[in-house]
Each structure stands twice: as structure tokens, then as C-alpha cells.
Design goal:
Layout lengths: L1 E12 L5 H6 L1 E11 L2 H6 L8 H12 L7 H15 L5 E9 L9 E9 L1
Antiparallel strand pairs: 1-2, 2-3, 3-4
């Protein structure tokens, strides 16, 4: 099995439990790892035989810019479900969502959730 990775997709979005997060927003990063068969796409130089990552990013962007949710777990679940439905050739999908500088009393680089879908 081969992988295609999109790492560090960056968004400013209004998600979080606290009202300030939902009005002012936060910085988020999303990583995707698609597990699928890519060798034929490489041999044929054929975009239709692989994951079009412009399409994948559009799916993520719609979730991130969509209705506000409280949890990064919810964002990961929505992103993963939509991508898994969109790309039937994906055998396994890993999604990581990071909230940068989460609202904690201690300086914190990020909070992160990772979810996996398997056919």
C-alpha cells in the first residue's frame, strides 16, 4: 500500500468551547494521510488514478469554514467521513487536527486529535 500525505493545512476558524474562540477564532492545522494504491498513477501520469489533493483540501476547507463546533474531535470526524466518502479508492485514512495555542493557563504549542478510517 502507498501513501499520499498533505501536511500542515492551515486555517483560521471559529471552533471551540469558549465564546471567545467561537467569535475571534483560532489557528488550526490539519494533516491527511491517504493509504491507497498509487503505483499505476505514477506509471500512467494520470491524475484520475490518484488522490486529487486540490479536491481533498476543498473538503477540509468546507468543514473548517463551516458551522462552528466545540471539539476538534468533531472536526476530525467530519473531515474524515467526508474524505472517505469522496475518495472510494482510499483503503485507510489518517486525519490529524491541531488547535494551535489552545486556551490554557500554561503556554501550549497545540492540542491534537488523530483519527483513522479503514475500509
Amino acid at each position: 500500500m502507498d501513501t499520499l500525505t498533505l501536511s500542515g493545512l492551515q486555517y483560521h476558524a471559529r471552533h471551540g468551547v469558549h465564546e471567545k474562540e467561537r467569535t475571534e477564532g483560532n489557528a488550526f492545522e490539519v494533516d491527511l494521510v491517504f493509504h491507497t494504491k498509487l503505483k499505476q498513477a505514477g506509471l500512467d501520469d494520470d491524475l484520475s488514478a490518484t488522490i486529487n489533493y486540490e479536491d481533498a483540501e476543498e473538503v477540509v476547507r468546507k468543514v473548517m469554514n463551516g458551522p462552528s463546533v466545540h471539539l476538534i474531535e468533531t472536526l476530525a470526524a467530519q473531515i474524515g467521513a467526508n474524505l472517505f466518502a469522496r475518495f472510494n479508492q482510499v483503503l485507510k485514512l489518517d486525519v490529524r487536527v491541531r488547535k494551535l495555542d489552545p486556551p490554557l493557563p500554561t503556554p501550549t504549542e497545540y492540542s491534537e486529535v488523530a483519527c483513522t478510517w479503514t475500509r
